[in-house]
Amino acid sequence: MGSAYRIELSPGEVLFREGDAPTTAFLIESGSLRITAQRDGVPMVLSDLGPGTLVGEMAVLDDSPRSASATALEPCVLTPIDRNQFAERLAAADPVVRALLLSQLSRYRTALATFTGHADGVATESIVAGGDSAHALDKIRLESQLRGALERRELEIRLQPILDIAERRIAGFEALTRWSHPERGAVSPADFITLAEETSLIVPVGDYVLREVCGALRRVADAVPAARPFIALNVSGRQLEDADFIERVLAQLHQHNVPPEWLKLEITESLILDYAKVNALIEHSHRAGIKVALDDFGTGYSNLGHLHRLAFDTLKLDQGFIRQLDDPRCLAIVRAVVGMASALGCDIVAEGVETEAQLHTLATLGCEYAQGYLVGKPQSLDEALAALRG
Ligand code: C2E
Ligand code: MG
Ligand code: MG
Fold it and tell me: Residue 323 CA: which ligand is closest?
């Protein structure tokens, strides 16, 4: 019939038969094939396929026996496609896209079985619990619920205090978003922010958090006018893409009558790979009077080459370092980072400070700020106000 790279068929020659085990799919280069399936022993024509179409790919995708036969109508040239070529791409695809594809395939197979009279009654399609498709559908369900939660204002902002170590007072807060899901309980921002970032949903989520933060800044200023704490807002990659982001931030600040200096933006370290965009955001923020922090510093993307050109106001040292402060090598790194930050004119916030011993070490190293359970957990606005009143 041909080589591994090219197959030629004469008119009437069969490429594969109903019931065969699948090994390969084919791309029709020239000629045409007739696809038939038996109904009560009579071959029924399902379709005629011409150049540029795939044939036999279904059985390769779901590893089921061929549900139809393919016969050449005229001289044909085909390129065989190994199942691995599909399998690798399918494995690398978005799980939701994979679930959509496999569900369409299963729907087609059920319809075909019904048409040819091979169905033992109509099988109810279902996705196996715990499988890859179930996981994908779970994700899409969560995404729909997140859209609903946003409309019902079920996302909550928690404020985690940041301590000025030398002065022993609360200098500001970081806004951390919480979602209390009616069935799943508290969904971690690590899960739902990542999910929102996969789609454009992060834009309304980000706008919602921004509005809440500006509202919180207004309430803090009214309730405890002398305190003047800042609130730090986490910025996602998608928001960074948005050329109008800072304008929207300024509009919200203006609407709540909040000066820009009270807000700080946090950009996570993985995003500084996109140097030009981050640089534009920093410059734009500085022109507007807003400070910018580099979040999770030291977690894997620390690019010192970029750091000297990006004028961050604050470095937030990742909690991984703080957890290991009793390790001399880790201590040496933290000491060096504090020195480097001070030479660059940035202040340092140590993240995830949980013990007095860690706080003491950080104070000796000259680190300015500490954030972590020792200082306070993420809390409601009322709790934050109580903490500011002392
Ligand atoms: P992040 O910005 O680095 O926030 C610090 C995370 O460390 C928070 O987790 C906080 O609760 C946790 N943490 C604080 N102190 C301690 C401590 O002493 N020990 C330990 N073990 N953990 C501590 P959370 O709230 O789960 O947030 C996870 C990440 O989700 C945040 O990391 C941030 O990157 C992202 N995130 C949260 N809210 C938002 C948001 O509104 N927008 C965006 N774009 N990202 C957000
Ligand atoms: Mg942060
Ligand atoms: Mg962080």
Answer: 1
